[in-house]
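Worked problem 6 (solution included).
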Amino acid sequence: MTVTATVDKPRIQPEPDESSTGQSTPVWLLLIGVVAIWVSIWAFTRGQQTLALEGLGRTGLHDWFTDLRDDLIAGRDSNVFMQLTGAVADFFNKVVEWLQALISVPALPRPVPEIGWLGVWALAIWVTMAISTWRIAVLVASSFLAFGLLGYWSDSMDTLIITFFSVGLALLIGMPLAVLIGTNKTANTIVTPVLDVLQTMPTFIYLLPLVLFFGIGPPTAVASTVLYALPPVIRIAGHGIRSVSSTTIEATDSIGQTRWQRLTKVQLPMAKKTIIVGVNQTTMAALSMVIIAAFVNGPGLGKPILRALTVRAVGTAFVAGLCIVIMAVMLDRLTTAASERAESVSRGGGGNPQIRRLILAGTAVLTLAMVYLSRFYPWAAEFPETSIGADLATKVQAFADWLTGNLDGLTTAVKNQVTSLLLNPVQDLLANSPWWLSALGILAFATVLGGLRALATTALCVAGIYFTDLWNDAMITLTMTLVATVLVMVLAVILGVWMARSRTADWVLRPILDAGQTLPPFVYLIPALALFEPTRFTAIVAAIIYAAPAAIKLVADGVKSVSPTTVEAATAAGSSTWQIITKVQLPMAKSSLVLAANQGLLYVLSMTVIGGLVGAGALGYDVVLGFSQGEYYGKGLAAGAAIVLLGIMFDRITARAASKAKTSR
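Solution. The predicted structure is:
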């Protein structure tokens, strides 16, 4: 995401509403005042009315949710909605099983799939050549071979099956909605808040309620992936359709075209590039969700990673994670190349179409021959066994053990320092304050940062968190999220300013950040677990690695957009580099900084929940507990609701703060 800040005229001083004018109280001073009052009351009330549950405690609300689940399951035969979702689940299951028998698992009584690895490999290459370029076809060919050589051919094919099936369903549902919000302002006003909520929810949270209606296995994996992957294509494609020039539409309307002709002949073709970008983002979102669906026994690469993380087998998790990284890069480059080729062809480029058709026809014959071989010859049907993946896992495990042993002193020192100086004090204030004091403090922060609108939303979210009976766990999760976000923003400001001021730094770091944003969040647990023991700090480290790329790029783009004239004027006035950064560029990029904090918070919150697997505790652990033990289903569901409310609260406060910062500009 790129943020461009506009500059009306050159100026060196900070914004008019800041402390430099003396006309209003600076925001930072108000926040310090809130903290001071909070700490003063906390000193006398610490440890009272914290609403903490002991151990694996449950409340009546949690048991009520569990009983409701049991009642719905028991009454499935008489409940129309449950019957409907059951029928949809059966359909999903049949399609996935058919696709698996086609390319990934034995199609009984055959001991191998209908199309063996050689045929699948050839088909993937041919399809890639048909929609993109030969360079991407080489990348796809290499990626598919890597899946097999690393020992995860079947799991990789399962991941692709769920991903592409879910993306197809998401496009089938999402494109009509994109057209609707792109052509109807009222529909856009109604649908946008729903998309905001769906994109605010951490990926983990989609699973627990859907299990009730779709059951364990592929149906829930598909349903959750579709739901999570829908917002990007709706939002981006809708934006592309709305962005078509009104002059162009008026010109074509003047010749008497119908609404359907306007849509199919003008708006959709002119928005084609943006729509394919939406498909790219939907595909990446689907891949991310498919991995997490391993928690509900969804097929694919998530399963071996989940098993490896459970027993702390870093080497095995690394190899499976490497397959995910390869797949993410492959899909990202493939959809991007398809977008660029579509744009090129629409403008009359893309090479000689007749030669291209001849090449595709010739390679199609070769592809069909490979498909035939894969159906009747064992060597072409089942990927040859190889020890490359196992050997790599052994070496990585040995390296992780060596690294942990040799860096134990350093990692322990870092963990202890951050924990004692930052994590423990913030958690003590948030979680050990009486619930009403924490609530008032949060409401005060929301008012100072986002104004009355943010206060209203925050009040509703705080009330909702209170009624989940998980207040203390929510405050612990809030602590980890805030601490991780602070560290993310420190990295974002340092590296973002460096990128904005140095072309070399931007050239080196931006591809790394782009690659980092393509990886599913599950992958980031692996290096964090390799360096640190399973603790809440491990989850924070993984969250920082996951959230940093988006925040760094937003800060870099915001600082870079500051007018060069303004920077030159400051330089001519004798300002040092430090003064230019702190007095000119960062103040004028304030809205980008707040937006970076917004995205950082949401990314961190999502990762903190997944960090429940590596010792994060609190709400993340409650959700995992709800998956693993049926009697805690209600508690897990309540924890999921609390996480959603935290996400909405974070999003609204930071969004309003960004809006205020932009207005002050």
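Discussion: Confidence is low (pLDDT under 50) at residues 1-23.
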